[in-house]
Amino acid sequence: MKRSELVNVFGTEHPVLGMIHLPPLPGSPCYGGSMDDVITHALRDAETLSGNGVSSMIIENLGDYPYYPETTEPETVAAMTRVALEIRKRYDMPLGINILRNSWKAAMAVAAAADCQYIRLNVLTDATVTDQGPIVGKAHLLARYRKSIDAENVMIFADIYCKHGSPMTPRSLDTVAKEMIGRGMADALIVDGADSSQPAPMEKIQAVRNAVPDTPIFLGSGMTVNTTDYLKTADGCVFGYGTKPSGDMNDPVDGPTVRISSTRQFMKQVKQL
To answer: Which parts of 91-216 fold into alpha helices (H)?
Structure first.
């Protein structure tokens, strides 16, 4: 995808991808026993995000920790598909899927089944040390799997040196960015800080922009009402941390009791760019 295509896909030059962080799903250690509760949580977040003007929503199994490095467990795939279909029935906007920690096959399968437009993948190329152990990129398998299930319309948004991880053998951002697009077949790149609360350093964002000037770049962490200026260098952002006023990523969007919507404030500032 080219930067010039963002408006066609998302309806804006600065897309905001709002995060729907799901509670624990069936099969995970903290699952509460009710898929109806999971869906209620997801639909509440979707309504808040959509009502405040986000361009897209990403559905993620945040509550399934400790995460598999990769999973194709049928209960996870089934639950994610069910949630995604419930959201798709209600919202006519681009949707994305992220299945932690790096479940490329499951995410692509869910996205294809639920008419989603993209997946987020934390490690597409190279190798990263994470709290799940070493994760090696599977771009070669993902590209072939996408082709095999006739899902080439599902885009791949890939993190470059993802948060909550460190590259095993760091290479220059210039080289990695170019190879993720050219050889890894990523459609867009996501630039992260060290963890969800921290935005990427500006020099990292600028280095990726210089390397792939025509490729869409999304900021993947630390986006709040105080960091919207970063979008003057990047094209769009993943908006998750800034929707949680308490800093607890397990909270619903805008917190358990909404007084002043952080999502509405953020979107207002983005529209002024």
So the answer is: 104-113, 139-148, 173-182, 202-211
Nearest Cα residue to 221 out of 239, 243, 235: 239
State the Cα–Cα distance between residues 239 and 189, nearest whole angstrom: 15
Structure tokens at 142: 């993902």
Domain ranges across the chain: 3-271
Cα–Cα distance for residue pair 139/164, rounded to 1 Å: 20
Bridge partners of 119, per DSSP, are 97, 156
* Residue 140 reports pLDDT greater than 80: yes
How many Å apart are CA 109 and CA 95, to the nearest integer?
A: 14
Average pLDDT over residues 151-157: 98
- How far from 184 is each of 121, 141, 156, 268, CA to CA, in Å? 12, 10, 10, 35
Determine the average pLDDT of the residues in 146-150.
98
CATH number of 3-271: 3.20.20.70
Backbone angles phi, psi at 235, to 5 degrees: -95, -40
pLDDT score, position 255: 61
Measure the CA–CA gap between 116 and 190, rounded to whole angstroms. 18
Q: Residue 50: enclosing H or E segment and its boundaries?
A: helix 35-51
Which pLDDT score, from 0 to 100, does residue 256 have?
58
Interhelix angle 104-113/139-148, rounded to 10 degrees, is 20
Distance CA 179, CA 234 (A): 19
Given a cut of 60, is residue 109 above it in pLDDT? yes
